[in-house]
């Protein structure tokens, strides 16, 4: 359990998430994330030079990833800061915050920054020399499609892991459609009053159009209107499955930033010094092969045990849901009402850019908990390799 690792209230942002092959498709995600962070720091009147160390969360390689975190620090105006890359698919953000909190807790650094930036659009195609192959044929990999299509440890694609859990626990197509509609309704609440909730944390992105022109992206792109009738008309992707293209997420592009520092520095940087945000505990788990959506429940229990808390002491819960069965299983395993968590939306609706996904969920959890007057917030989500990570913070 942590005692002296804090996130300044308001010391974070998320960009809008744009469906892949949309507005952010042709921009290096590290360059865009650093540029957005630089603008955000300037907007908050914070000097990036306060950053002692940078954690760069990237799951989909980009040009110059070799230089990674130190390069991003230089781009955003924190050129004196060293750093490291963290790659853990959808659990990249929670794991980055965990590592940052460890460093602050140990006294190694006073102020760290987690920059989460991924682009699923136009992902890299890697080839390796293979002189022993027939005719010297190279070994090739499509970073996005090949890894979504098969976990090298099991040979199973990600949708199959979801359908395995649905069959094992008896979840139905009707349950999937019904809860999906609830998730879209919750996301709709974040759009009320001209996106009042989202404006608490979403920071617009400047997309280069030419050398002299940029375009501002201020809101999520690619969220499809969804109705009960529309969902009912869709075929399941697998013949005996429960998931349609309406009850699973879409790949996306985006970035997010989170400051992790000491209690004293957090109070200085906070938009409301009375609202402390303490990093409390982290839990990580791995479930049985090809059952990825089951992993978050075990990671939640580990985080609760680390914190010495029970689930009824948690005020806000956010779960990454690339498939709606993720939410169905979490509710069943933990004894939750599935309709009461993931308020204001989840990745099922606004998309899945890997690294920033759980960062946005964490930020939304902090803001929701602040609106509730404070308390503990829990964020969890599965990741490649049938694993998951959970993070607990205390707000207020």
Description:
The chain has 396 residues and is α+β, with helices and mostly antiparallel strands. The protein is 33% helix and 21% strand. It contains 13 helices and 14 strands.
Please give the number of β-strands: 14
Query: What is the string of helix and strand elements?
Result: EEHEHEHEEEHHHHEEHEHEHEHHHEE
Helix coverage percent of residues? Answer: 25-40%
Gyration radius over CA: 20 Å
Helical run tally? 13
Which geometry do the CA atoms define?
globular
The secondary-structure class comes to: alpha+beta
Tell me, rounded to a whole number, the average pLDDT.
97
How would a textbook summarize the main sheet?
6 strands, mixed
Strand content: 15-25%
Unreliable stretches (pLDDT < 50, length at least 5) are none
How far from one another are the termini?
A: 18 Å
List its traits:
single chain, 396 residues, alpha+beta, six-stranded mixed beta sheet, four-stranded mixed beta sheet, 33% helix, globular
Give the helices and strands, then pairings.
Layout: E1 12-14, E2 18-19, H1 29-43, E3 53-57, H2 68-75, E4 83-86, H3 92-105, E5 111-119, E6 125-128, E7 139-142, H4 145-149, H5 158-169, H6 173-190, H7 192-195, E8 205-208, E9 214-217, H8 228-233, E10 252-261, H9 263-269, E11 277-286, H10 295-307, E12 314-319, H11 324-334, H12 347-350, H13 357-371, E13 375-383, E14 387-395
Parallel strand pairs: 3-4, 3-5, 12-13
Antiparallel strand pairs: 1-10, 2-10, 5-10, 6-7, 8-9, 11-14, 13-14
